[in-house]
Each structure stands twice: as structure tokens, then as C-alpha cells.
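User: Design a sequence. Structure:
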């Protein structure tokens, strides 16, 4: 116990713990995690000068992943957070929990969830793998919400710990959008559409989804334009306060990205709750107008000779049997909704 830098209710006999920032853990999807005192997704100076919502959400480690290789038969976590997010329309595991995946036959598969019992510091948990001892490729998804300051990972004493497998490309897909992009309201982190696409295609990604706060500001466009990326998904329709705001920012935002990245694949997406919005009192005329604004950005790019743009009509994202079962509240996707989004958007990347 003396070597563990925290107080815990876990049975730590024959365990050792390392903070996720330590070698040989590999951290993906976050901004300079080994140089900051908290896990975050972008520089503080950009976040605080974008809008108050982004300033409050950039420390949420949505899309953060930790990969490593081990033969430990148990993996414990002890997460410390400055606050724990909870909402009536969102499971605690989905907003604040952690899930773990292991590679099986060349693909990462869900292996367990760290149940989220809130403590004064955050939460902790233990997963034990059945069967014989074996080397596993492990990937841990960090919470889509919360402000995580430390994440300790515990393994069996004497167990192997090495760097995990790399992604197919060093350059990540970058997503910019609303709470839906951030992961609300998946039942656990790995079921957000960004994560599903990553798992299905073995591609790294950066999640710049900000609940209620992705409004197409120029400072954000300039920041994203400077990132090394393999593709960009532009999905902030939901957070534009009205069609006029969307029209004033959307094509301008894209042109900033395109100027610095002339051959970057860019995918435009309109909001997915096109039909369910009607039953919540949102005019279909508004949804159609928003979709047409986004399509106009796309068609203007095509007409100018741009061969690297794609458009996804959000009204198609929930298509299929029981399409009305794809959301929690008529707006935020549940796991079925996110799976259908991943199937459509993933084909464009």
C-alpha cells in the first residue's frame, strides 16, 4: 500500500499501479497529456477564447484512449476527477465511466466496464479476466465527460507491461461538433459513434465535440486547420443557434480548413434527429433550411473543383427498422442511434 499514491477501497495485494501518463502506456486523442496536470483535448488559450462552454468542456477527455500490452489477469483503475458529471438522460457509465477493450482476432472487442460508484475523489474498479494467463492488447476508453486529473492503472505484480499496437495511420480523424459528437448519450464511452468508427477501422481520432458549444468560431477553425489529420468531420449543425448563424459560419469555417489543407478529406454532416425533432416542436422547415446550408457549402466546393469533400444528409443517419428508437430524448442518440451513425459516417472515411 505504501507505494500507492492514493487511498483506495480496492484489494491491492499483489498489485502495482502506474499513472496512465507514465511509460509504456500510449495515450491517444488528447492534447499533450504528459505536459499538463489534467487530461484535456486542446490548448487552454484556444478553449478559453472560443466561448464559455468550450472553456468548461475542453478538459473532458472525450475520445481519450490508453493502449498497452500486458499478461496481467486483472486490471484495476483509480480515477481522480475535479467533478463527476451526472444527468437524468445519460447513464453514469456513459458520462463518467470507463470501458476496456481487448484485441480478439485482430479487432478490439468490449471486455468490461468499470462501474461508476461516485466517491469523493472520482471512482475506481477492477476487471478480472477468466481463463489461462495470456498476453492481451488492451485499450481503455476515458470518460466522455468529467474533468480527469489522474488515472491510475493497476496490474498484477510481476506482469508484463509494454507499448500497445499502433493505429494504421499516425494522423487521426478529427471530429468537430455538438454533444452528440462528444458522446452524449452513449451507454458507455466505446459506444459513441466516433469510437465505433475507430474500432471498426483501426483509425486514431480526436474528438472536439462540445455540448451546446460548437458554434463555428473562427478561432476554432484556425486551431483545427493547424492539426495533423487524415480526415475532418464537420458536424456542428446542432449547436448553431439558428439557420442564420449556421449560414454565416459554415462555409467560412470550411474554407479556413481547406486553405491550410488543400487535399484533406472533409465530411459535412447535418443533424441526425431530422424527423424526431418534429415531435419536439421543432419546425421541419428549420431542419430543411439547415441541411440546405450545409449542402450548399458542399456543392460550392464541388463546383470549385474540390474532389475531397463529402456530404451526409443527417436525415438518413437513423434509417432502418425502428428508426424512432435511435435516441434517448428525441435528440441525443442511444447506442442504436450511434451504431447507425457510425455505419454511415464510417463509410465516408
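Assistant: Done.
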Amino acid at each position: 500500500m505504501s507505494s500507492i499514491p492514493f487511498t483506495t477501497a480496492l484489494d491491492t495485494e499483489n498489485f502495482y499501479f502506474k499513472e496512465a501518463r507514465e511509460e509504456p502506456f500510449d495515450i491517444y486523442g488528447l492534447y499533450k497529456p504528459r505536459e499538463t496536470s489534467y487530461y484535456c483535448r486542446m490548448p487552454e488559450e484556444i478553449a478559453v477564447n472560443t466561448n464559455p462552454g468550450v472553456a468548461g468542456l475542453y478538459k473532458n477527455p472525450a475520445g481519450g484512449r490508453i493502449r498497452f500490452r500486458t499478461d496481467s489477469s486483472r486490471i484495476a483503475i483509480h480515477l481522480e476527477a475535479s467533478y463527476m458529471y451526472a444527468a437524468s438522460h445519460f447513464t453514469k457509465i456513459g458520462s463518467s465511466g470507463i470501458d476496456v477493450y481487448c484485441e480478439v482476432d485482430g479487432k478490439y472487442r468490449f471486455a468490461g466496464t468499470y462501474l461508476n460508484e461516485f466517491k469523493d475523489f472520482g471512482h475506481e474498479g477492477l476487471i478480472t479476466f477468466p481463463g489461462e494467463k495470456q498476453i492481451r492488447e488492451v485499450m481503455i476508453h476515458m470518460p466522455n465527460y468529467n474533468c480527469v486529473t489522474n488515472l491510475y492503472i493497476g496490474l498484477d505484480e510481476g506482469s508484463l507491461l509494454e507499448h500497445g499496437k499502433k493505429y494504421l495511420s499516425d494522423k487521426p480523424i478529427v471530429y468537430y461538433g455538438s454533444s452528440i459528437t462528444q458522446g452524449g448519450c452513449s451507454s458507455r464511452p466505446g459506444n459513441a459513434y466516433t469510437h465505433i468508427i475507430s474500432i471498426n477501422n483501426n483509425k486514431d481520432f480526436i474528438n472536439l465535440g462540445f455540448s451546446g458549444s460548437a458554434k463555428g468560431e473562427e478561432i476554432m477553425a484556425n486551431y483545427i486547420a493547424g492539426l495533423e489529420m487524415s480526415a475532418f468531420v464537420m458536424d456542428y449543425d446542432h449547436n448553431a443557434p439558428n439557420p442564420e448563424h449556421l449560414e454565416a459560419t459554415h462555409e467560412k469555417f470550411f474554407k479556413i480548413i481547406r486553405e491550410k489543407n488543400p487535399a484533406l478529406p472533409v465530411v459535412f454532416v447535418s443533424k441526425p434527429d431530422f424527423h424526431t425533432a418534429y415531435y419536439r416542436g421543432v419546425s421541419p422547415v428549420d431542419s430543411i433550411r439547415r441541411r440546405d446550408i450545409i449542402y450548399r457549402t458542399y456543392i460550392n466546393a464541388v463546383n470549385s473543383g474540390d474532389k475531397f469533400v463529402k456530404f451526409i444528409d443527417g436525415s438518413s443517419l437513423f434509417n432502418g427498422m425502428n428508426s424512432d428508437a435511435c435516441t434517448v430524448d428525441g435528440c441525443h442518440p442511444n447506442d442504436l442511434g450511434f451504431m447507425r451513425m457510425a455505419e454511415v459516417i464510417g463509410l465516408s472515411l
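The chain has a mean pLDDT of 93. The two ends are 47 Å apart (CA to CA).
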